[in-house]
Amino acid sequence: MDDSTKINPLYDPSTDNQEINPKVQEMINKPMSAQGGFSAEDKTFLDMLMKMVDGKQIDLYKPESLINHTVYDKISDADKGKADLNAINMLARIRDIYSLLKSNSEPTFQVQNMVMDLRYKKEQLEKIGGDLFII
Question: DSSP string spanning 38-105?
Answer without folding.
Answer: --HHHHHHHHHHHHHHHTTSS-TT-GGGGB-HHHHTTS-HHHHHHHHHHHHHHHHHHHHHHHHHHHSS
